[in-house]
Amino acid sequence: IATKLPKVGTTIFTVMSQLAVEHGAVNLGQGFPDFPVPGRLVDALTRAMQAGHNQYAMMTGVPALRQAIAGKTERCYGWQPDADAEITITSGATEAIFDAIHAVVRAGDEVIVLDPCYDCYEPAIDLAGAKAVHVALDPLTFAPDWAAVRAAITPRTRMLMINSPHNPSGAMFGVEDMREVASILAGTDIILLSDEVYEHIVFDGARHESALRYPELRERAFVVSSFGKTYHCTGWKIGYCIAPPALSAEFRKVHQYNVFCTFAPAQHAFAEMLVEEPEHYEELGAFYQAKRDRFRAQLLTTKLKPLAVPGGYFQLVDYSTVSDLDDAAFCRWLTIEKGVAAIPLSPFYETPPAGQRLARLCFAKNDATLDAAIERLRLL
Ligand code: PMP
Ligand code: GLN
How many CB atoms lie within 10 A of CB 80? Predict the structure, then answer.
């Protein structure tokens, strides 16, 4: 069959999780927490089902949840979107990213992505008949090169995609970066897609620079987030997209024929959580910072060199003192021979930097899981 996605195989997350199961490895590869969701959320979900919220939700999402997101956005970023016209609930951030791209990107258009980038971006661009234009982040700090982004813009550029806190590196954009984005987009009709799924997982007192804080950005942006990251429930696949009314209208044209709506009971449960327990997302940074600090201290007793992690729940490690294998081979070896599954960075790139020796470890895990991994990593 003539494939529409010649560059795509099975995602690295599936490949490495399978390998972890086959070899009994501690799985620090695919990004998912191994601890329970908040008790109140489970209660709220059960109550929502018992109360009969089991049929199709509104296409745009349960109104109480859209209202709750509007309130949370105001609380966090000082601006309140219109719950009816500007917020749409999706089946995870993945659906939101797919819908946003397909809503506005046409065949022949170009979309600028910053490498390394999350693996669902380029296939969605390809399926729209458009071209992903890759601009590399710094291979060590993962800082953006805004001059290179400027230079990559052509009359065909339709969209710029950004992701802060960043997967896989944890790097975060500062105010200056957001000003650069605004200045680059000013006077163009380029749309911004800001992937902010790790918005609440930020460390050391830093502030998440949401595109929603900046009027000149939010007026041309799809801002995407996911409850999977914030509420330890990646398997529920509920996310959302905030965009101005005209962009949301186009977004909803795709959403309504892609999935129409998403799991109704969970939407009621998240509405309750956001309103009744804002401490959950407000304290999430501190919760993960403790895990990061504990894990980093342990890694320093191994031969792996941990890089700085400003946000998110991934720790990059430099393994060059352990092995000269390329990252894909190293991660397979680590999983099969040493019993710890990790994710290589090369699948996040069009062209991986030559000689890069980095692997990604997920620390969204119970202390016991991380301890078991460290015990094995000490033997490297
Ligand atoms: N964007 C990034 C940067 C991610 O890390 C993920 C999940 N790993 C997603 C999007 C997708 O989120 P969801 O699981 O809600 O579809
Ligand atoms: N986002 C998760 C990660 O980066 C994986 C999600 C998936 O498996 N598709 O590990």
Answer: 15
